[in-house]
Amino acid sequence: MTLSPPLNLNADGWLSPARHCPSPHCDDRPADEISLLVVHSISLPPGRFGGPYIDQLFLGTLNPDEDPYFAGIHQLRVSAHCLIRRTGELVQYVPFTKRAWHAGQSCFGGRERCNDFSIGIELEGTDTDEFTDEQYRQLTAVSRLLLAAYPTIIPERIVGHSDIAQGRKTDPGTGFEWGFIEQLGTKSARTKKKKNQTKK
Fold first, then answer.
1. Nearest to 158 by CA among 100, 113, 114
2. CA distance 121 to 136
3. Could you tell me which residues come within 8 angstroms of residue 168 by beta carbon, excluding any fewer than 6 positions away?
4. Taking Cα atoms as reference points, which of 193, 128, 132 lies closest to residue 158?
5. Domain count of the chain?
6. What pLDDT does residue 138 have?
7. Domain of residue 100, residue span
8. Cα 104–Cα 105–Cα 108 angle in degrees, nearest 5
C-alpha cells in the first residue's frame, strides 16, 4: 500500500498536498480567533457524486442550465474551507486565515455568527448515506493538523452543521460516524452525548 504524504499547513492557511481552488466567497475574519470545526455534507446534484459542480458552486460559476436543481442555488455566495471527496481527495477553497461562508445563521455556546470563528469542512455525501473510509482517514488527518495548529479547537468543539443550525440544517446526517473523533485522542461532547442517548 502506498502511504499518503503527510499534510502540511503553511503560514497563509493553505494545506498541502491538496487541490487549491481559491473561492471569491470569503473575507477577513473579525478577529484572529479560530476555535470551532464544523463538519458538513454536500452533493450536487443531490445524491450524485463526482463531477465539477461543488467546485463551481463555491467558485460562483455554477450554470443553472446544467440541472434543474441548480436554478435555485446558482446565485448563492457560499463556500467552505475544504471538501473531502468520496475518494479522499482533499480540495481547499479558502485559507483557514480567512472567513469562509459555510455556516449561515448559526449559534454555538450562545455565540452567533459561527463563520467568524470556525473552519468548515464539507464531505461529499448526503444526510443519509454512509461516508467512505477514505473520507474518514482524510478528515482525521486534517482534524489532527488543525487541532495542533489552532489549540482553541479541541475535540469538544468539533460539531456538525446540524448542531449549530438546529432546525435549519441536518448535515452531515445520520450516516456520519462521530466516533472518528476518538482517533484524535479525546472524545468530544458530541460523541459522549450520542453514547449517553444510546444507553437510555
1. 114
2. 12
3. 104, 105
4. 193
5. 1
6. 97
7. 8-199
8. 105
| Whether 122 is catalytic | yes
Residue 63: count of CB within 10 angstroms of its CB: 10
The answer to whether residue 2 is domain-embedded is no
Residue 33 included in any domain? yes
**Cell 454512509 belongs to which residue?**
130
Task: Report the Cα–Cα distance between both ends of the chain, in Å, rounded.
Answer: 42
pTM tops 0.70: yes
- One-letter amino acid at 126 equals T
Q: Which of 66, 89, 122, 182 is catalytic?
A: 122
| CATH code, domain carrying 58 | 3.40.80.10
Q: Is residue 56 part of a domain?
A: yes
Q: Are 62 and 73 in contact (CB under 8 A)?
A: yes
Does the N-terminal peptide bond of residue 172 adopt cis geometry, omega within 30 degrees of 0? Answer: yes
Q: Tell me the average pLDDT of the chain.
A: 92
Residue 12 lies in a domain: yes
> Is residue 30 reached through a cis peptide bond, with omega within 30 degrees of 0 on the bond before it?
no
